[in-house]
Each structure stands twice: as structure tokens, then as C-alpha cells.
Amino acid sequence: MVNFTHYLPTKFVFGRGVENQVGEEVKKLGATKVLIHYGGGSAVRSGLIARVENSLDAAGIAHVSLGGAMPNPRDTKVYEGIELIRREKVDFLLAVGGGSAIDSAKAMAIGALYDGDFWDFYSGKAVPEKSLPKGVVLTMAAAGSESSNSSVIMQESTKMKRGLRVELNRPLLAIMNPELTMTLPVYQTACGATDIMAHIMERYFTTVEDCDLTDRLCEGAMTAVIRAARIAVKDPKDYDARAQLMWASTIAHNDTVGVGRVMDFASHQIEHELSGMYDVAHGAGLAVVFPAWMRYNLPKHTMRFAQFAVRVWGCQMDFEHPEKTALAGIEAHESWLREIGMPLTLKELGADPKDIPELAKKTKRTNPDGTVGKFEALNTADIEAILHIADR
After folding, report:
1. Which of 146, 185, 309, 370 reaches 20 to 30 Å from 175, CA-CA?
2. Which CA distances in Å does 19 have to 140, 196, 391?
3. Within 13 Å, how many C-alpha atoms sit on residue 324's CB side?
4. pTM of the entire structure?
5. Alpha-carbon torsion 334, 335, 336, 338, what sign?
6. Which of 102, 86, 94 is nearest to 52 (CA)?
7. What is the tens place of the pLDDT at every residue in 208-230?
8. Dihedrals φ, ψ of 376, to 5°?
């Protein structure tokens, strides 16, 4: 294992009806005026926003609201929130929703205390030094943003998605009631499960040796997600399956399963350009990109993919031809994606193969040499090749 620092300030309040405790929990954190940021009308129609507001009222905490968080959260909504925070003198942000609302709230929290353009942080021009405190009432198991240090925002004018990973991004409070995810469309449930798996796999596929403890944590989490997703798409009201997915989304992306490892995240960077250009669901994009990424990297990392096949998917090890085992694991993963209703090709996303060069060129490079990824550093030609594998 490599050296690590693991900082996790989030308090988790998990179970049935816990959204009714949000007022008392926010009050403990010293909030006096809260901005409630949420997405579409479902949070209002279901009565969730009313329950949150009633809980804040009972705790004597003033609040204002801002709806309109969208998938692939936009910078325009962040600017709107920053202006509202400053005008209303808000001192705590409460995101009610999934990753889109949470990521937007994270951007608002740092942008409201910054004299310049918050996009400076996402474009790499500046590093945030302070943030307003924030909490989450989670309604979707997917992004893991409820306790992660990351946030992803799309610049609407350019359709460019960029992420920011800083410890200031971590919420102080996560209210997590699995029942709140039961009304999600089956497709969104499947997208969420795919995102959870991808977050774990970005950590699992590492070049660091002798990290068996977190290998086993990753493998256990992945097998639990596979089983729970199969149940949840068939029976959306199954509480235990929903609970498994909700907690898995959290540990998948707050580095509980990633400490001591070098993480990759090339597939996420490639997918960000797909969802930015075509406005597809992030999980659906990952369902297309990740298997293609695995197939491309299999020849150089055969034994790692063979381990994935055996321990996660129950494939039999072919010691004479480990590449066959590795491929069987990738095919098993693809079969599971199909089973829960995910796409596997660019065509299914509505993507035009003529855009592949542009998608590859725009992909954010996280390495000093202009490549992306730690498991295998990818240049523009590599990214194009992966996208062509997905164009099948």
C-alpha cells in the first residue's frame, strides 16, 4: 500500500424517516440560514421538500430554496445559487437530491466565498481556500457525492465538464433514507448502480501491489452491488436492496475502498466528454466506456483482469490462457449491464462516431505529460482507440 491521508468529516444518519431529523442535525452544525437546493418537481410533489422545510422550521432555522438542479449540473445554476447565497446571507447549504444537486451545492459553497469566477477552480486556474458548510438529503444512490471530495460541473457555453477534487468539498452531514430512492425510474436506478461499480473499479484497477485488504473490500462491494441492482430493477420497493446500493454509493467514492491505492479515473474523464456533448446520463456513458477501456487494457494487465473475473464474477481460472479468463470477466460485466438495462455502444447513446476525434481531444488530462489515467496512461490516440471499441 502507498502512503495515504484519509479525511472523512461527514456524519451519516441512515435509515427510514431520517429526513425528519435534518433540522436538529443542521442546528448542531451552527446553521442559522439554509439554502435548500434540489432538482425537479418530484422532490416537491413527493412531499420531501415540505418535510425538510418543516424540520428546519421546528429547529428554528430560516431557509430559502433554489430548485432546478439538472443531470450534468450546469455552471449557470451555480452562478444563480451564488448570487442567492450572497443576497440572503446564507450560512449553510443543504442539497436535496442526487449527485447533480450535491455537486452544484459544492460549487456554490466555494464560489460564494470567492471574489473571482468559481469556474477558476474547475479549470485549474485557482485552488479554493474556504467553503460554506453543507449537508445532503440523498435521494439517489449513484454519485457518492454525499461524502466525497469531488464535484463535477458542466460549462454550458462549451459543453465541457470538469471536476474538482478538494477536501473542502466533503459535506458535513448526509441524511440517507433508502426509501427516498424507491420512486426512481428503473433506468435511473440502473444508471446509479453502474456509476457505483465504476467508482469502485476506478480504484480496483491499480498498479499498486500488496493491497489485498482493499482488493477484498472492492470485490465485496462490487458483488453486493451486482446482486442488489438485479433485485432493485425488478422490485423497486425492496428496502434492503435499496439500502445496499445507497451505502455502496457512499463507500465507493469517499475512498473507504480506495486508501493506499493509486486510482485511475481515465474512464470517467472520457465519459465526461460524452455526457457533456450528448447530455446522456453519466451512468449510461460509463456503461459504454468502461468495458471498452477494459478490453483495450487487457493485453497489458491480463492478470489483474483475470482476478476481477474470478473474484467478482465467479469465472473459472484458465491458468494456461489467463487472457481467456480476463475476457470472460469483461463479458460477464457487459452481460450484467445488459441485464439491468444499460447501453453498451456509442450508437445506443446517440453518439456520432465522427465526433470521436473531438471527444478524445477534449478529454481532460490529469497527468503532467498530457496523458490521463494511472493504471495505464492514455494519450489521444489511446482514447480514440477506446472510443472506436465502443463504436461496435
Report:
1. 185
2. 14, 23, 43
3. 6
4. 0.95
5. positive
6. 94
7. 999 999 999 999 999 999 999 99
8. -150, 120
